[in-house]
Amino acid sequence: MAFSNKLDKESFDKLLEIIDRNRWDRLRKRQEQLDNVEEEELESDDTELSPDTVKVVLFGTECPFIHSMIEMLRNETVIAFLSDPEKMITFCMDHQIPNLILDIDPPSDYNLVMDAFASAKILLPDTRIFACSSRKSSIEVEHMKMHGAIILDKPILRKQVNKFCSEYCR
Fold it and tell me: Of 6, 45, 83, 105, which one's alpha carbon is 20 to 30 angstroms from that of 145?
């Protein structure tokens, strides 16, 4: 069977119509599948998490320490991680967050962390502020301790996280 090199206009138009119809059918089916998956995920979500259920906010620059803290804390309580000081303060004010953990060691910018700390002390008087540092006798740590921060010495182990959560997150 040999194929003709030329299609007449009528055959070409029919072919384009079939291609277009098939394309829209595939797109419609794909969207229906996505909708079904989203509905199943919503139905299977037993715990109702909302910003109001957050017990701890982590603040700092994303790094291995922050990832480690997120993994340890999320097994114990509801947490949020924010790296923008304005968003962090706004979030904490809007949702009455009881605990704020600041990472003051590099790669976090010390000046940014200190600005966030000062703002939190003024705007969030009921929030407990914790500062994580591996430098126990630095000027920054002493300054934060003097102004009411609770210092958490790095490295922070799972046992310490469990104790922290049992004391402050219930």
Answer: 83
